[in-house]
Amino acid sequence: MEASEFDRNIHGDKYSIILPTYQERDNLPIITWMILDMADRNNLDVEIIVVEDNSPDGTGLVADELQRIYGEKRIQVLKRAGKLGLGSAYMDGIKKCNGNFVILMDADFSHHPKFIPQFIEVQKRTDCDVVTGTRYRKGGGVYGWDLYRKLTSRVANFIASFLLNPKNASDLTGSFRLYKKHVLEDIMSQVKSRGYVFQMEVIVRAEKNGYSINEVPITFVDRVYGESKLGANEIISYLKGLLGLAKDL
Amino acid sequence: MPNSFIRLGINTLAILFVWLCLYKIFCTNKDNKLYMFSLTFPLYVIYYLGCKAVGSIGYELFVLEDCDEAHKEVQAQIEQARKDLHSKGFDFNIGVQHNDQIY
């Protein structure tokens, strides 16, 4: 691909990145910087929408401070009353998007913004509706996972694949994706589940609705700051949610 | 009717049908070589599926790559981000609650 082709934004594409945050005062400035630095270096028109659920640690003030530095055109802060869930965070965030593409990712740099240009390149080349990052294909990978964590992830993905039978999505629970805005809006109106299952439902509904999906291998660096949560309760609620989703499709 | 449940139902019926055929053909007398196999056919199916599952999960586990360079890259960028934000006048301590209370 020619450099000039990629550098000039002939189509005027704008990419809205929705970052739901809760207790992320340490991570938010860094991830914001990383995203905007990537955007500058790749000549991309990017805006970040921080969906802040009234964190006790002052994340809201951090978001305001970032907006002060980077400007309202690049950073929007949507403040909500409390922890209202990831799905509703996305739905509220989409309403504020000015872009024609929406990128969903985690705010704790488990997802690296450097993959966004790769997502965009694939999308432009194939004009697909969704680009999803996968940890499980060649070129992807994880950091910070011991054998137990890898095992639970693979088993979870296996069971989900068995029940939901996706066509070519290898990472169902992945949450680093690029969508055409109208596609995401359409899917979100159909999605009902919460928690881990939410991400799976989004990608599976995208397939069932006939939207085209492409994958890009990504590296997943697990939780530089903060704790990971994966206990027996999570496993049970995951299975229950998965069965509920399988019944619903 | 949910798609995956339909699939499951059809597969189960297929297995039961094959089992019935095997039973009718090979379970007429106890000395037939395939007597035990035909009698317990579904167990072999479950065993086969179990092997496939273990194999699949084992293979995926084997090829799941570790990416140490990615971690190092992130660490370096965190430092870079901190410096740059600091130079832009970003207040890292905004909104931090101080717990020094006087009793």
TrEMBL record, chain A:
Keywords of the record: Endoplasmic reticulum, Glycosyltransferase, Magnesium, Manganese, Metal-binding, Transferase
Gene3D superfamilies: Spore Coat Polysaccharide Biosynthesis Protein SpsA, Chain A (3.90.550.10)
Pfam families given in the database record: Glycos_transf_2
Gene Ontology CC entries for this record: endoplasmic reticulum membrane
Function, as annotated: Transfers mannose from GDP-mannose to dolichol monophosphate to form dolichol phosphate mannose (Dol-P-Man) which is the mannosyl donor in pathways leading to N-glycosylation, glycosyl phosphatidylinositol membrane anchoring, and O-mannosylation of proteins.
Top-level taxon of the source organism: Eukaryota
Catalytic reaction equation(s): a di-trans,poly-cis-dolichyl phosphate + GDP-alpha-D-mannose = a di-trans,poly-cis-dolichyl beta-D-mannosyl phosphate + GDP
Domain named Glycosyltransferase 2-like: residues: 16-187
Pathway per the UniProt entry: Protein modification; protein glycosylation
Natural source organism: Euplotes crassus
Gene Ontology BP term (one): dolichol-linked oligosaccharide biosynthetic process
Subcellular compartments: Endoplasmic reticulum
InterPro entries referenced in this protein's UniProt entry, alphabetically: DPM1-like (IPR039528), Glyco_trans_2-like (IPR001173), Nucleotide-diphossugar_trans (IPR029044)
Cofactor: Ca(2+); Mg(2+); Mn(2+)
Complexes and interactors: Component of the dolichol-phosphate mannose (DPM) synthase complex.
Designated name of the protein: Dolichol-phosphate mannosyltransferase subunit 1
UniProtKB/TrEMBL annotation, chain B:
Membrane topology term: Multi-pass membrane protein
Listed pathway(s): Protein modification; protein glycosylation
Subcellular location per the Swiss-Prot or TrEMBL entry: Endoplasmic reticulum membrane
Pfam annotation, one family: DPM3
Protein keywords: Endoplasmic reticulum, Membrane, Transmembrane, Transmembrane helix
GO biological process, alphabetically ordered: GPI anchor biosynthetic process
GO cellular component labels: dolichol-phosphate-mannose synthase complex; endoplasmic reticulum membrane
Signal sequence segment: none
Keyword Zinc: no
Transmembrane regions: 6-27, 34-50
Family, similarity comment: Belongs to the DPM3 family.
Physiological role: Stabilizer subunit of the dolichol-phosphate mannose (DPM) synthase complex; tethers catalytic subunit to the ER.
PANTHER family documented for this protein: DOLICHOL-PHOSPHATE MANNOSYLTRANSFERASE SUBUNIT 3
Subunit structure as annotated in this protein's UniProt entry: Component of the dolichol-phosphate mannose (DPM) synthase complex.
Name recorded for this polypeptide: Dolichol-phosphate mannosyltransferase subunit 3
